[in-house]
Amino acid sequence: MQNLRIPGPTACPPETLAELSRQMINHRGPEFADMQARIMERLKLFFRTQNEVYVMTCSGTGVMEAAIVNTLSPGDRVLSVSIGEFGDRFFDIAEAYGAAVTKLAFEPGTAADPKAVANALAADPGYKAVLVTHNETSSGVTNDINAISKAIRAVNPDILLIVDAISSLGCIPFAADAWDVDVSTTCSQKGFMIPPGLAFISLSPRAWKAYESSTIQKYYFDIGKAKSYAERGQTPFTPAVSLYYGLDLGLEMMDKEGMEQVNARHAAIGDYTRAKARALGLKMLAEGPHASNTVSSILVPEGVNAGELLKILNTDYDTVLASGQGKLTGKIVRIGHMGMTSREDIDAAIDALEKALDRLGYKKPAGVGA
Amino acid sequence: MQNLRIPGPTACPPETLAELSRQMINHRGPEFADMQARIMERLKLFFRTQNEVYVMTCSGTGVMEAAIVNTLSPGDRVLSVSIGEFGDRFFDIAEAYGAAVTKLAFEPGTAADPKAVANALAADPGYKAVLVTHNETSSGVTNDINAISKAIRAVNPDILLIVDAISSLGCIPFAADAWDVDVSTTCSQKGFMIPPGLAFISLSPRAWKAYESSTIQKYYFDIGKAKSYAERGQTPFTPAVSLYYGLDLGLEMMDKEGMEQVNARHAAIGDYTRAKARALGLKMLAEGPHASNTVSSILVPEGVNAGELLKILNTDYDTVLASGQGKLTGKIVRIGHMGMTSREDIDAAIDALEKALDRLGYKKPAGVGA
Question: How far is Cα A23 from Cα B149, in angstroms, rounded to an integer?
């Protein structure tokens, strides 16, 4: 069986996959309404919020778009904090919808400095919103959203904090309310142990106020429609019912395990992955508190071609790792360890990596042991 | 087992449902690229087009939005032909994105008159596009897109013809190229025998030219992104992989059966459903060439409460029909017969309907026999 170790879609447990084969129901009937109510209630636990969480049929990028189009207006000044490809994507979306966006970029592999974010806001009182990625999937770096929130609130208490928590929420601790996040977004194929196709979004009262005055044109991603239909147990447009079945069970499993334990499991597998990579003499792109517990970026050793390495892993060892993206192309390979990832999965991936590296002439440095 | 007879999501055959439980693959790897290529090639058969057909992860409404935002600009004059709820939705989307939309409405239960559409265009040479629904799901009426296309081209050969073929394509004959349709849209949960969550869109060269000058803001539904990623075997954003598995098989089954036969099967089951309803002494909202072969609207007999009828069917006979919408609320009930619908499914639904009507005091008129 293929060892799929990319940072989403993640390999799913057989239990949730089995749910996907259930027959259709009326998406405007009572069974769907019951299921949606259960799902929305449990999502609140994992968003750690008292506000409603809405499910949309789309990729993660769809709810990033929803975050922008529901709270901003053309011409709004926006500070887009980017530590990689997905930070850049948030910038691109806001710009596509006519916001006046300024990018505050940090070197790939590093986290955003809360003080630098606060300084940028202090230098320009016109900003209406800050866009930040919680966990940057392209580099394997986790931003400290709580620290960023505190820093920016000290400068401007009313600014909108809009967070892409796509590869973190449901894996790494996230707390929409305690961290005073205004728009929280994530999706199905990361920590929730189901395939892609559903995405989740929650707005604070401050963000709902911004919605009222937002003039960006919207229809499919209009959160007001999601809200009014959810109140009668429906979605505005036909939802991806099969994925709801899977999500319903995935959330039940996560709830049973407990949120703290789900977070602890991801922290443990993150530590384990990094330790196994170091034991091969490999270096991580990120170390310390910002090293991601959902995806690890391993620096490709000098003299090894990243493309060849991934190809050998795929072809000869049925192991799929992810390549670097953007500036990190060719410099790193990434191992996803979100959702249902076991130590055995990581052992097998690292074992395959060791063999493939050996074939490409990589020699473990002297003194490094397992 | 529940007899789900709504006009989408439709009950799916066990074969396609089983595909949905397959494990995830890398959506940026060679297996996905092969599958997407097969799917795109087969979709062209059913769109009857030489142009590429793109798959997006969203509901049908998502590709209706894609049709608008990729071809129009704010202020564009648009004629929106509506014969019901989904015609009205097309109007709403175009208006939400700032087009100057005029509605040409026809009575619920009737089809659009091609001559009236042409007259509206002739009266105002400023129109850039016409929006039309092929099959109006809310009333069970099929418009003659070929006749409408010919009538409008006689007035304005360059006008954009944008068609919602959501509850027709893959069931009722549709021919994007022969009918000179510029934007054709449909989705997964109707004729394609799989659950909702994927939607399909194809643009004519004329529509691609309009895309180049379109200034409506867009990101997730930007068809240019879909095109450039499809060229390298990918989608711009993480796709609903499980539904692609189902679609891959659904299209293979349809291709094997043959497009003509798929269309003939829907025509036969449409005829059969109407005959069975008439045999109970019931009247159809639409008869003749415009009666839909994917969904039939039955007029609720005098003295019978539509809501009660649907509730009894659901609770006591495990049969789910659809209610009327908008102006037709309380006046009709709808039976879906798209995708994998057998005569036995219709027999069971009509049998349940007969029993439920009987309990509500309905008496078959004298002289009506089965």
Answer: 38
Inter-chain residue contact B219 with A92, CB threshold 8 Å: yes
- Asked whether residue A368 is assigned to any structural domain, the reply reads no
User: Which chain B residue's Cα is nearest to A238?
Assistant: B59
Domain boundary among A235, A256, A277: A256
Tell me: pLDDT of B240 over 90: yes
Residue A217 sits in which domain range? 14-256
Best of A220, A223, A315 to mutate (most B CBs within 10 Å, chain B):
A220
Question: A with B: how many residue pairs have Cβ under 8 Å apart?
Answer: 178
Q: Tally the domains of chain A.
A: 2
| Beta strand spans in A129-284 (E) | 129-133, 135-136, 141-142, 160-164, 183-187, 198-203
Residues A306, A239 share a domain: no
Name the pTM for this structure.
0.97
B366 pLDDT band, cuts 50/70/90, is: confident
Answer yes or no: do B220 and A217 touch at CB < 8 A.
Answer: no
- Residue B369: pLDDT above 70? no
Q: Which residues of chain A have pLDDT under 50?
A: 370
The CA distance from A318 to A336, in Å, is 15
**CATH (domain of A18):** 3.40.640.10
User: Measured between CB atoms, does B62 come within 8 Å of chain A?
Assistant: yes
B27/A20 CB distance under 8 A:
no
Which residues on adjacent β-strands are paired with residue A336?
A: A295
* Domain match, B110 and B200 both: yes
Nearest neighbour of B26 by CB, restricted to A197, A236, A320: A320
pLDDT band at residue B1 using 50, 70 and 90 as cut-offs: confident
Tell me which chain B residues have a C-beta less than 8 angstroms from the C-beta of A31.
Answer: none
Residue A262 has, within 13 A of its CA and on its CB side, a CA count of 26
| Mean pLDDT calculated for residue range B35-56 | 98
**Cβ-nearest to A98 among B25, B97, B217:** B217
Whether residue B110 lies inside any domain: the answer is yes
Contacts of A267 (CB under 8 A, 6+ apart): A172, A293
